[in-house]
Amino acid sequence: MHKWRRTVRWILLLTAAATPPAAGVLEIRLQPRAQLAAGAVCLRDVAQVRADSSELTDRLNGLVIYEFSGQIQTASVGLFEITRALARANVNPAAACIFGASRCRLARTPQDLAADPASPAVEAAPPEPAGPTLADRLNQTVAQLAGLDPEILHIQWRCRPEGRLAEPAGERRFEIRPCSTVELGEVSFEVSERAPAEPAGPTEPPAGPPESFRVYGRVEMLCTAVVARRAIRPGEVINLADVELQSRRIASMQDRGMSRLDEVVGREAARGIPANEMVSAAMIRRIRLVKRQQNVELISRVGAVEIKVTGKALADGVQDEVISVTYGKQKIMVQGRVTGPGQVTVGAGDSAPSPAPAAAGSAAATAAANSLSIGPSDPSHSERQ
Questions:
Q1: Domains of the chain, with CATH numbers?
Q2: Residue 121's Cα: distance from chain center in Å?
Q3: I want to staple 66 with a disulfide (CB 3.0 to 4.6 A). Which of 25, 41, 341, 383 is the partner?
Q4: Is 0.85 surpassed by the pTM of this model?
Q5: pLDDT tens, 25-39?
Q6: Tens of pLDDT along 290-303?
């Protein structure tokens, strides 16, 4: 008995080891329908594949997921066929993001039917693919009510029994009513079958109330996000090699990060950013030109006169940010604008000095000194004219 248990345990371990998880991004968008000739159906025929490497993308595109026999004219493939093919190719199905249509309906092309003498429908056009399922109708409803592009939505539906989601949903078969706010995250709908348009016969009893059931779903949106390629420490300036663009799924608009590299590169990390983490606006800031408790050059300009003293910053500051600075033995506090590394300017103007008459120089120097509450003869300052 113990020997049999050990054997089963080793089989499970070897099976798990033979199916390594797919690294990074693996997205498979299933198309609602496809027309193709009889024969092997590859993943590229029914879905769009996106993976981290072109090698993995090419391998999965050529993955055979179904055999479209010449004896049949229509068929369908879905999640079961795709995950089974991934497992056979040693790709962990749990690591793949499979979204889009619930199933892809296959039909043979008219040329293929005409060239096949064994086909019973050689002279007839291929039948129209089946209409959308209930899950497809729910996807359309969410996109319309939330005002989002259905192409970027990934929705997982659940209900009892689950088979109802795959039922054909004609234009007027189901009535779908939202039971919650329709946005990213958890949603729910009340679904009921409409009463038949034809009245019941004279011998048939009247139909009861329409059957209704509740459907729950989790709505996620695919978006392009800036992702950290490595762990970034607080205060570190972010370079182009530190980040990259990836497709990510979010369940709330608040989780949406930065979408452009130029919005992040050259900024400073406001806090630690783990590797493989989406970079949000709260994680970055402009580079601090002044740091708290740093000795700074405090400048007062009036016209062509400029007075400089040494002060101490009371807060961090980026370019053009107004911060408080103290200076002198009495620790007089003033507010100024950060104008450069370790430089804060107070007074009327931050522009370069312009020539002024000599007679006005004394008055300008007095005004500049007054903005710092010091006299021209104060030894703690320097004057430039």
A1: 26-115 (2.60.480.10), 131-197+211-285 (3.90.1210.10), 288-384 (2.30.30.760)
A2: 47
A3: 41
A4: no
A5: 688 888 888 888 878
A6: 889 999 999 888 77
